[in-house]
Amino acid sequence: MIPAAFEYARASSVEEASKLLSKFGEDAKVLAGGHSLIPLMRLRLAQPAALVDINGIKELDHIKEDGQKLRIGALTRHVTIHNSPVVKEKLPLLAEIASEVGDNQVRNMGTMGGVIAHADAAGDYPTLALILDAEIVTNKRTIPARDFFKDLFTTALGPDEVVTEVVFPVANGPHKYVKFRRRLFDWAIVGVAAQKMNGGWRIGLTNVGPTPVRAKAVEEALHQGAKPEEAAQHASDGLDPAGDLRASPEYKKHLARVLTKRAINQAEGRQ
Amino acid sequence: MKLKVATTVNGRRHEHEVEPRLLLVHYLRDNLGLTGTHIGCDTSQCGACTILVDGKAVKSCTMFAVQAEGRSLQTIEGMAKDGELHPIQQAFWDEHGLQCGYCTPGFIMAAAYLLEQNANPTEDEIRKGLEGNLCRCTGYVNIVKAVQTAAKTMSATPAKKATVTAGGN
Amino acid sequence: MAVTQLVGSKIHRREDPRLITGHGHYVDDFTRQGTAFAAFVRSPYAHARVKSIDITDASKAPGVVGVYTARDFKGLLAGTHPAAPAFVAEKKYVPERFPIAEKEVTYQGEIVAAVLAENKSQAADAANMIQVDYEDLPAVMDLEKALEKGSPKAHLDGPDNVCWDFTYTGPEITEAAFKEADVVVTQRVLQNRLAPVPMEPRGVIADYEGFDQKLTIWMSSQNPHFIRLFVSGALGLKESQVRVISPDVGGGFGSKISPYPEDYLVPALSKISERPVKWTETRSESIQNATHGRGQFYDCEVAAKKDGTLLGMRVVQYVDVGAYHGTFGAFQPVACLMAGGAYKWKGISARTIGVLTNRVPTDPYRGAGRPEATHLVERMVDLVALELKMDPVEIRRKNFIQPKDFPFTQNFGLVVDSGDYDKALDKALDLVGYKDLVKKQAELRKQGRYMGIGFSTWIELCGFGPSAATAPATGGIALVESAQVRVTPTGSVIVYTGTHSHGQGHETTFPQIVADQLGVPYESVELRHGDTAEGTAFGYGTYGSRSLAVGGVAISRATGKVIDKGKKLAAHMLEAAEEDVVFEHGSFHVKGSPDKAKAFGEVAFASYGMNLPEGMEQGLEAVAYFDPPNLVWPFGTHIAVVEIDAETGSPLLTKYVAVDDCGNIINPMIVDGQIHGGIVQAIAQALYEEVVYDDETGQLRTGTMIDYMLPSANEIPPILLDKTITPSPTNELGVKGIGEAGTIAASAAVINAICDALSPLGIKHVDMPATPDKLWKMMKEAGK
Hints:
The complex is a heterotrimer of chains A (271), B (169) and C (784).
Chain A: E1 7-10, H1 14-24, E2 28-31, H2 37-42, E3 50-53, E4 63-66, E5 69-73, H3 78-83, H4 85-90, H5 92-99, H6 104-109, H7 112-118, H8 125-131, E6 135-138, E7 142-144, H9 145-148, E8 149-151, E9 154-155, E10 163-169, E11 175-180, E12 190-197, E13 200-206, E14 213-214, H10 216-223, H11 228-231, H12 249-267
Parallel strand pairs in A: 1-3, 2-3
Antiparallel strand pairs in A: 4-5, 5-10, 6-7, 6-10, 8-9, 11-12, 12-13, 13-14
Chain B: E1 3-9, E2 12-18, H1 24-31, E3 50-53, E4 56-59, E5 72-74, H2 87-94, H3 104-117, H4 123-129, H5 141-156
Parallel strand pairs in B: 1-5
Antiparallel strand pairs in B: 1-2, 3-4, 3-5
Helix pairs in contact in B: 2-5
Chain C: H1 16-20, E1 36-42, E2 48-54, H2 56-60, E3 64-69, H3 70-73, E4 104-105, E5 111-117, H4 120-129, E6 131-136, H5 143-147, E7 162-169, H6 175-179, E8 183-191, E9 203-209, E10 214-219, H7 224-235, E11 242-245, H8 261-273, E12 277-280, H9 283-289, E13 296-304, E14 310-322, H10 334-337, E15 347-356, H11 370-388, H12 392-399, E16 408-409, E17 415-416, H13 421-432, H14 434-446, E18 450-459, H15 467-474, E19 481-487, E20 493-497, H16 506-518, E21 525-528, H17 547-574, E22 581-584, E23 587-590, E24 593-599, H18 600-607, E25 620-626, E26 635-644, E27 651-661, H19 668-687, E28 719-723, H20 741-758, H21 772-783
Helix pairs in contact in C: 7-8, 11-20, 16-17, 17-18, 19-20
């Protein structure tokens, strides 16, 4: 199918992108990897009046080590993140997650910033950003991940605001992302991220609510010395997931518990 | 509003004025007449439209032609050189890796990228490497076999490795 | 001189060089000069009244050539959508169908308006500007509710929702069997509605040349001659005025057999606009509007003796017809006639009920009725085995039709031509390592793991099909097949067939047959198909695994006629009596004097010259129509091994083995490929695919490839194949069809494996698709 007509402008700097977004107004969208946006446009479920193409802003494509932080440029492609020796060393869980987004072709185009800004409930990076207290840097400010994801496809971003970087803490302890899906290239039916850092566990859940969920009750139980299988029982505490074609709400809650146990066990090298 | 797009496709320069909404796959098919790249879905699943953009496998239905400005593209039509099939094409032929043939160009391009990244993939790596391409005829059995055969041929004769035109940026 | 046997050899496919280099010719790959592009406006409602259509804005949109609604086509298109009797001789109510709706829409996707524009973007834009005012009506979605008195109707002016209610054999025929029974098992078995999803969606280009009054249609079709027949009729043209060309076709699986609304509308638009018109279906349009498959359920009872002897079966089939009767929609009830499978029964009763709903029509989809029959009988036999605590292998062996029984007249009077079911089963058991698997299963069960082994000892009927059976089923035109073999003066051979290939490799396999028969080099034989302007007067297309078993035999017979004429001429040239001339290895020679010979090429050349025998005309060509005396009956054994994740319910296929028998084989590489693909399509039905509509609103919920889940290479287990060869006595080539076999066999093996895995929990039956969510719920309930 063919998208509705739109105006198109290439931005060569973040400043220019922001200006263009202001100029085009509310119906403008940022074009990064385009792998969520373009299919929606082809189905005419999205009909932005203008696209601001940020693919030419080279400085947004970066992976920088910054002390105990890892700064991932918004335009960094999944394939770059997945292959990055720095990411593999400093935040291997991120490399693992990047390798499981979509398929090769998608990973060659899709970007960190795109996934974060699109805020799909089934997006994988938002979960990691949330549990690691990552920061979303924009052309205007820095937003803690916990304040960024507001609702389904809804973020704290203003109309002329562009994500420029996502800043993760370094964490290279035991970790695992368990992504449960029917087909290898699908989005998560439920995903669970487990990362041990500073002696404690960070546990996050993907696609069990409109925004990513941090499983604090699980983290707390583990902190209290509960075994993974006991602690994982709390993974569904307070969840009220929407059912869909692939999974009922009860099944998603069940998966949250089972996958949490598996993520922790696998992070620690057990099956 | 039309914008200029200049690309190198299979080693040849092209320049056109296009609407921003023109998908790259439509540009290839309708403007350049390169109809070997097919369209099998609207939502980036099937991979029939896979081409190489600066050497990377990309779904050309999920990219606008204007985004290809200054890029070097390779399509299925650019795989055979001087009348000789690319080893991947030869392997698809030898192993009966196609039936209706509609998904085939996409699979061959995805395989070219896969083998460029990993010259000796295991069967699992091949299957994973082709996760972005769907086939309805073959049950994938002979596609996987074809990629295995191609990998063998290409590592035996390194000169025949997928020649990907250098990036244009 | 070619003496090598081509038949039976792995020959590289001829169609491949163009396809692997991007030089295939699918419909969307070409555009006529001066083309206008069509887009269609479709109903977003499953059932609604069309109150008004406002085309004002769309008509004024840039590039628009015209906007058209039903009334623009009224004088131009006549008749209703053809609905073949197929396996249901009497219909209760077949709704009239015009290719474009005027007052009422009855499924989501039904066309209400068409746009022509200078390019496809403009056509899409204008289609979006058409304002249609609908009044939403209740949608009929549930088959059982649809049959209740007072149910809303799928068509406002229909009497009710019963398209057909046909009893083949009444329950009384099974009374004795059920009286004798020690056990009776009862089960409802569902067949999930499927979208065929050929990788190439459909497309139509029509060019009506008014001055010549000739219409040329290029389209992605499995049977161009039938399209010519239907479209010429609707447009009031003679068949001779219409040429249909079906170029490379990117898969069909049954969805490109029947004519579609666009097949009439695009030519009509060409006539109206006096321009070539092109329409290319999108994937979303395809999933929404291409005919669906399956969409049925069965209520079944089976009676058996304690020792496992099968006695009787009672089947009632409910078919979701959809909003209109698919052209070959009543083919699916063949499932009733095949419900007995590979076994002997005292009695089978069968009734089929076709129910109209507000969904897209169903029509044949790979296997069409035979996968449903296999799935039903193989499930029921396993349920009996479970009830009797018998090994599923033993119960099958005990009841198989035996080699000595062939030709075997089964319960519905169909004659099974040949088979050796134990042989295929034995081979498959060896291949899968059954004894070890059973041991392994016992160990895993002790560990609380759920591993299952599933069988499908399938049979099918294909190669449609004898004129006596098929002429009534199509409403007159018998499904035979035609061929023409033409030999040029220099001895090259052009073969025309009325079948069509959409991936089956006919360009390769049919010349293998002819080259062998004529003893000429393979390279000198060319196959042509897919163009109604070439070859014989009529062709019958490709579906129902018929191309080789009917079309291939027609080709062989036409070739035989060429040889016969050649023999007459050679006798004349050799000054011998015709009965003394022998044709071997491409050469005619006098019996006992091999050096007194004329090569085939010499005879071909001579046939265009002078000095022919008295009364012989020039030329060397022949036409043959083959009317097979029976259907052909492939069979085999498939075994699936599955493990189900105890915690998530996720089923993982770990092994798949298939031993199939399609009689003599022309090209083993192509046969294996057909089986692979067929198996995977059925695995997809068993585990992944289902067309889901909202139960209330009738909105399609699986409208893209995101939600309609075709598996990728990663979801498919290793597949091991082997074969037995039992030549068919039905035709001189000894061949049977193989295009649908994998799909007919595999869903039962997979689901039986899942049921076997879960049997320790007391779970007896699982419906398709066996999703993790569904299995987890069943396991949880069973564990309570």
